[in-house]
Amino acid sequence: MIAGHLAALDSSATAGIVIGLGIPLAVCAAAAIIVWSYFRLQAHRADAVAMSHYRKLAEEAVANQQELRTELAKLTEHVRAVEQLMRDVG
Fold it and tell me: Can you give the pTM of this predicted structure?
């Protein structure tokens, strides 16, 4: 009879230890995952902002390059005109 009571006491003590350690461990694990996910989200947001700035910079570079090509074409025409004038004179 005493052995049965000790066995019941032993299993309830084990269950108490498991519950006493398991619940705080689960809460801490969940908090750690939430914090990790938050900082990962912030990193993705920072990457998205950086990529947005990079795209804007790339678009501006393309626009500037097109403007420079247009100006270079005009300059080339002026140089050709000057060269033709020099050939006609000389």
Answer: 0.52
